[in-house]
UniProtKB/TrEMBL annotation:
Required cofactor(s): Zn(2+)
Alphabetically ordered keywords of this record: Metal-binding, Transferase, Zinc
PANTHER family for this protein: 3-KETO-5-AMINOHEXANOATE CLEAVAGE ENZYME, 3-KETO-5-AMINOHEXANOATE CLEAVAGE ENZYME-RELATED
GO MF, one example: metal ion binding
One family name in Pfam for this protein: BKACE
Gene3D superfamilies documented for this protein: Aldolase class I
Protein name per Swiss-Prot or TrEMBL: 3-keto-5-aminohexanoate cleavage protein
Amino acid sequence: STAKAKHNKVMITCAVTGAIHTPTMSPHLPITADQIADAALEAHAAGAALVHLHARDPVNGRPDQRPEAFTPFLKRVKDNSNVVINITTGGAPTMSVEERLKPCAYFKPEVASLNMGSMNFGLFPMLARYPKFQFDWEKPYLEESDDRIFKNTFRDIANILITCAANGTRFEIECYDIGHLYTLRHFADRGLVKPPFFIQSVFGILGGIGPHPEDVAHMKRTADRLFGNDYYWSVLGAGRNQLPIAAQSVALGGHVRVGLEDSLWIGPGKLAESNAMQVRAVRQVIEGLGLSVASSDEAREMLQLKG
Ligand SMILES: C[C@H](N)CC(=O)CC(=O)O
Ligand SMILES: [Zn+2]
């Protein structure tokens, strides 16, 4: 089995903008290349060892997966920090796998995100939004996002694994449900992905597993059974679940992801004014538990990155 790093430092990943939230939802969502670079550098300075990056059209904020859309902020981030860069292969649900794979194939980053399956991708957190909802058979469809599917077939996953692994890129393995852990086990058994696995368990996105502490415990228990000592466990909680789920992970010896891609909030009804604000909040939880955050170089050692 792969020896885990001797130190129990906690790796913070910050996902600074994503593709799903829109500028109308928060004035603090980074959109332009400069805003994305600022957000990544501030998140790193606040304690994030890794930053997860998407690109957007600077005018309308729409997701943009063209390598040239990433170039300006990647250059600034690399010139001004040694943060570990994790480039998305998820892009947006509307994109083809070829389109989604382009930036990683071009930039050959240390880390790329990898979604371990296809899924219905609900925009809004689970039930909270519809307390008083009366179903109207005349208008069965709730939201435009009700028809949104993120497609990532076994062939697409193999394609991403083979393309990126050839560049020495390792993966942030997004598991939105228990079945995704078994899919990872399958590709590991096929030798298409090597340990240590960096598993990013995703909680509270409609279409995936819920945000309840028992869901979190069940994911961890199952990952321990399937991967033993060959993996690092990290979590992201969507929306209001971000910090509570991060706290549970840290208490269980895990790692955390925050950032405006996953939640626009810092507290009930309070928008986060920056990504760094969320990094500082989760760092307080980590240090409050007597633990310390990992530096980017410690994360490189833990995840055996190419540097
Ligand atoms: C829940 C997150 N949106 C997962 C994600 O970050 C996917 C990706 O970029 O590949
Ligand atoms: Zn992403």
